[in-house]
């Protein structure tokens, strides 16, 4: 099996960190998304959404979407658990994963796409929307700051996929000049903790 990705993009990094935490080796195929390589007919046939990453199994089956890929490997290799073990733990991790993804990670992505014009050959950037998305992302940091004042990691006392998403989102946020400030004491504590994990270098 192999994963088609772009090494500099944040979503592929989420999968690489997830697999590194699991100790799973993988073959990676690089796609030039800036040059539109992901839009070629043979790639669209494998992955209709055209987004990276996507996983191709040995039988030719393809799985797109970052969390779907992570779920596949979580089911194959349940330990160490990154998506929860008990019903409550699973629900709590999914809740925080979705919160981070929708209210921070997605907003960062929209800020980048609509203010940088990186994909202007395939979409119509709306600069005001991009600025508003960036403001929404910054506002959500206060909620995360509060949460991390009450727990070691985003979803509780164990490292999870929610932490992976937040780490990748925060690192990518630098491209739109969004960074942690001095008031984010708990977030900075958390960031140092998760960035020190070997998987963070994946």
Report what the structure shows.
The protein has a four-stranded mixed beta sheet, with helices on one face. 52% of the residues lie in helices and 7% in strands. The chain has 202 residues and is α+β, with helices and mostly antiparallel strands. The chain has two domains: 2-76, Glutaredoxin; 87-201, Glutathione S-transferase Yfyf (Class Pi), Chain A, domain 2 (Up-down Bundle). The protein has helices at 10-22, 41-46, 66-76, 87-116, 127-147, 161-173, 185-195, and strands spanning 2-5, 27-30, 54-56, 62-64.
Give a brief outline of the structure:
With 202 residues, this protein is α+β, with helices and mostly antiparallel strands.
Topology of helices and strands:
Blueprint: E1 2-5, H1 10-22, E2 27-30, H2 41-46, E3 54-56, E4 62-64, H3 66-76, H4 87-116, H5 127-147, H6 161-173, H7 185-195
Parallel strand pairs: 1-2
Antiparallel strand pairs: 1-3, 3-4
Helix pairs in contact: 1-3, 1-6, 4-5, 4-6
Keywords:
four-stranded mixed β-sheet; 202 residues; Glutaredoxin; 4 strands; 2 domains; 7 helices; alpha+beta; Glutathione S-transferase Yfyf (Class Pi), Chain A, domain 2
- Report strand %: 5-15%
Shape: globular
Q: Which residues form runs of ≥5 with pLDDT under 50?
A: none
Mean pLDDT figure: 97
SSE topology string: EHEHEEHHHHH
Question: What spatial order of strands do you see in the largest sheet?
Answer: 2-1-3-4
Termini separation: 18 Å
CATH domain class of the largest domain: Mainly Alpha
> Could you give the count of β-strands?
4
